[in-house]
Design goal:
Blueprint (H helix, E strand, L loop, with lengths): L1 H21 L13 E2 L5 E9 L16 E9 L2 E10 H6 L3 H28 L5 E4 L5 H17 L7 E5 L1 H8 L4 H7 L4 E4 L9 E3 L13 E3 L3 E4 L12 E4 L2 E4 L12 E4 L5 E7 L3 E13 L9 E14 L7 E5 L2
Parallel strand pairs: 5-17, 6-7
Antiparallel strand pairs: 1-2, 2-3, 4-16, 6-14, 8-9, 10-13, 11-12, 14-17, 15-16
Helix pairs in contact: 1-3, 4-5
Length: about 325
């Protein structure tokens, strides 16, 4: 029992240590002091500062009045996941406590953190209005030029150079690192941080699995999305969408959709694309974890069996400031 109490006492520190070490997105967490409770329990308010620009100065009447406004943007929490795991007390004893001793760290490192990173990158990659490019880079020079162009484009969009972070696949980072030239070193030195992201968690779109037997998704976690077509659920024509008709296995875009035929139209569900790299200006994001908690119950507390039960829940926000989308740059494969 002493080991159980020690675990409960150290669980918060364990969570924080593993998260900061293993997650490639932990640098983007916002200062909790900026977060204010919203009107509802599932939302928060964050401050947005705006002000008028310069005006003419008159030597007789002086300055022209301007306004400064501090408003609150309301954002709803958009990520909530959890899991209950159990292990038989005898199984744990016969392994010398190895199961229980390693469960938390392994679960966080191999299941939680890869999903958290994948969700965040896919969320930020789908933000409307961010800078995007599609490419496959064949050599180090091409990678260098792509990152350099992205840096210059962000500067041209008046994104501050401070606090820009580079996230890139191990393969591409290895290519530019091995250039070992002054220009590549100078470019990489400009970033506040550089972290390599395994390709599995670096996708433009992902699908979260329910973890339920009834869905055939017992293992839970996430997976890549395969491009597909589905019958539209629209009852009126949406001018922002492209509709398709199906003939055999061929889908053709409808040039002039009409509401009378909408029940026969399909919409394309975009599949996952491998991300090459992202440059993220931290102040552009609203990344906040409200609840991150582990619970452990002993076999004596298990009314249904003789198991240790381990419960984990995560609840948070992966969002952005509406007026700072220029602070996110995405390069992905076509």
């Amino acid at each position: 029992m002493n080991s159980i109490e020690l675990f409960k006492e150290n669980a918060p520190e364990l969570l924080d240590t593993i998260y900061k070490k293993e997650s490639t997105t932990s640098d983007f967490d916002i200062n909790p002091a900026l977060v204010k409770p919203g009107r509802n329990a599932n939302e928060i308010n964050v401050p947005v500062l705006d002000m008028d620009g310069l005006g003419d100065y008159d030597r007789n009447s002086g300055y022209i009045d301007g306004d400064v406004s501090l408003t609150n943007e309301t954002k709803k929490f958009n990520y909530e996941r959890g899991r209950k795991l159990k292990t038989d007390t005898i199984d744990n004893e016969e392994t010398g406590g190895v199961i229980l001793g390693n469960l938390s760290a392994e679960f966080l490192r191999t299941k939680v953190i890869p999903e958290v990173d994948a969700v965040r990158y896919a969320t930020y990659a789908s933000i409307p209005g961010i800078s995007k490019t599609k490419a496959t880079y064949e050599n180090a020079e091409a990678v260098y030029k792509a990152i350099a162009k992205a840096w210059d484009d962000m500067t041209n969009d008046e994104v501050p150079e401070e606090n820009r972070h580079l996230r890139i696949t191990p393969t591409l980072f290895g290519m530019i690192r091995d250039m070992d030239t002054y220009k590549s070193k100078d470019l990489l030195s400009k970033f506040a941080s550089i972290k390599v992201v395994p390709q599995a968690r670096f996708q433009t779109v992902i699908e979260l699995l329910s973890g339920k037997d009834s869905d055939g998704e017992r293992k839970g976690g996430f997976k890549k999305v395969i491009e597909k077509y589905e019958l539209t659920t629209d009852t009126a024509i949406d001018s922002t969408k492209i509709y398709y008709t199906k003939s055999g296995e061929t889908y053709t875009a409808v040039a002039s959709p009409v509401v009378g035929s909408i029940a026969t139209y399909y919409e394309k569900i975009e599949g996952s694309k491998d991300i090459n790299f992202m440059i993220i200006h931290k102040p552009a994001l609203l990344q906040y974890t409200k609840h991150n908690k582990i619970k452990l119950f002993t076999p004596d507390q298990d009314q249904d069996g003789d198991n240790y039960k381990w419960l984990y829940r995560l609840y948070g926000l992966n969002e952005y400031y509406n007026n700072k989308v220029a602070g996110i740059y995405l390069s992905n494969k076509a």
